[in-house]
Amino acid sequence: GRKSLCQKIVDELKHYYSGFHLLWIDTKVAARMVWRLLHGQVLTRRERRRLLRTCADLFRLVPFLVFVIVPFMEFLLPVFLKLFPEMLPSTFETESKKEEKQKKKLNAKLELAKFLQETIAEMAKRNKADTG
Known about the structure:
GO terms for molecular function: ribosome binding. This is LETM1 protein. Keywords: Membrane, Mitochondrion, Mitochondrion inner membrane, Transmembrane, Transmembrane helix. The protein is built from four helices and no strands. By secondary structure, the protein is an all-alpha fold.
């Protein structure tokens, strides 16, 4: 059924807590990676991507903190998220948003695959016509 106002508030607070906690963990890991880079070690592709994502999240945190700190500003957060969908740090995304992004990426890949298959089929027809 429907959640009470108190339960919605508690759920939002848990969401913010877990988001900040995950961001803190990512920041600690990124700091270790930067330390390794400064000492001449090479990062793997996966580590480099994680470091870039964490740095981007830290830069996105600044405008997000304005919404959290200023009283009643959090009511405008959904409006700004509609205008700027990539404004939230990645640790604050809900599962439904992550699934939605994955679906969009998958659909784009499927469209690209269809296009490439049609192109290859067209090239095969041309080659058969040229040789025949």
